[in-house]
């Protein structure tokens, strides 16, 4: 399926196109941290406790909790209590997984250009 610029639907908001795209920019910033992407990858396999994520990722509990709070505030993950712990899961798994798969395809096409970008690349 080929998409053109006219196929992209932009939510209309007071203030014009930039205001309408602000929410999209915020969403992409929430996905802009490798640790948050790793957390989402683990949650795509099913529910996890923070302790499980810290073991998988080798990050401190406070770091994982802060990333989960960010993802929760963005509406991407949710938790439910299980005893004294909480189980975390994706809230919109199909859409999020589609977005990440599309990003992988875009990265395959652009190669190292994003990583080498002087503004947003790995060395920036």
Automatic annotation (TrEMBL):
UniProt keyword list: DNA-binding, Transcription, Transcription regulation
SUPFAM superfamilies assigned to the protein according to its UniProt record, in alphabetical order: Winged helix' DNA-binding domain (SSF46785)
GO terms for MF: DNA binding; DNA-binding transcription factor activity
Residues covered by the HTH arsR-type domain: 18-111
Record Gene3D superfamilies: Winged helix-like DNA-binding domain superfamily/Winged helix DNA-binding domain
PANTHER family: TRANSCRIPTIONAL REGULATOR, ARSR FAMILY, TRANSCRIPTIONAL REPRESSOR SDPR
Official protein name in the record: Transcriptional regulator, ArsR family
């Amino acid at each position: 399926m080929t998409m053109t610029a006219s196929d992209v639907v932009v939510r209309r908001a007071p203030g014009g196109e930039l205001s309408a795209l602000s929410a999209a920019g915020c969403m992409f910033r929430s996905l802009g941290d490798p640790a948050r992407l790793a957390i989402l990858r683990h949650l795509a396999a099913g529910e996890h406790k923070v302790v499980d994520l810290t073991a998988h990722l080798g990050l401190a509990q406070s770091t994982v909790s802060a990333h989960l709070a960010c993802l929760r505030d963005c509406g991407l993950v949710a938790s439910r209590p299980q005893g004294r712990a909480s189980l975390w899961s994706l809230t919109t798994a199909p859409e999020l997984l589609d977005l990440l798969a599309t990003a992988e395809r875009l990265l395959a096409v652009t190669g190292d250009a994003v990583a080498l970008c002087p503004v947003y690349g790995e060395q920036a």
